[in-house]
Amino acid sequence: MKLLSFDIEIADEFELKPGEDLLRYAPFHIAVAAAVAPGGESRLFYSEDANGKPCVEMTREKARELLQFLAGRQEEGWQLFAWNGLSFDLRWIGHNAEDMETAGRVALGLYDPMFQFFNQRGFPVSLSAVGEAMGIQQAKLMKSADAPKEWRRGNFDQVKKYVIGDCEITNQIVEQITRRRLIAWKTRKGTVSSEPMPRLKTVAEVLREPQPDQGWMTGGGMKRSDFAGWIPRHLLAEPER
């Protein structure tokens, strides 16, 4: 089975305060996206002006090209992976492409290890926390909040390397989860914890499982609908193909 991880970087620049809801600043526009296969295909998606210079924001046409590329790979039998891709990447790809139907269908077939982890433990975990705990030597090249700033400053190559790097890290984490049958992460206390993950599941499979147990959490936490609530409801009711 062929694997492909993808990631987007947004064009919107803002300062997120501690504990603040990211969606306060939505809807988001895309600056650049990447799709990377382990040891193979690597593609970048961004819009250019008449002089060939990258645009600040991806056009609707380019976003549709990106979405159709992902849908096409999925239809060809590729396994698509994205870290928090259900809640974020595919939602805003669909929004920018003005095609939430296709984005929703791709999302149901997506493998999102972060969403699967959330459904088992009741809280999200970052790519960097997992990468560090699972021994991934490749480090993130910048903070995600800095990508829009650098893109707007014209540091296009730096942001391109960053978005490709996050895809490469995701691929390496997927390989480790598959081999070790667990997911490990570095906690806020600096310790390493792990959670069994015998196999990776599609979003559709995870959504058929019970809601996560969050009874131990003070004040509750994120809900599963926060991740999947954007998918058109009729798609959620369709039998799996």
Short descriptors:
241 residues; alpha+beta; four-stranded mixed sheet; two-stranded antiparallel ribbon; 6 strands; globular
Please estimate the helix content: 40-55%
Roughly what fraction of the amino acids lie in strands? 5-15%
User: What class, by secondary structure content?
Assistant: alpha+beta
Biggest sheet strand line-up: 3-2-1-4
The count of strands amounts to 6
* Number of distinct helices: 10
**From the alpha-carbon coordinates, what is the Rg to the nearest angstrom?**
17 Å
Largest sheet: 4 strands, mixed
| N- and C-termini, Cα separation | 18 Å
Order of helices and strands: EEEHEHHHHHHEEHHH
Report mean pLDDT, rounded to a whole number.
95
Offer a concise description of the structure.
The chain is 42% helix and 13% strand.
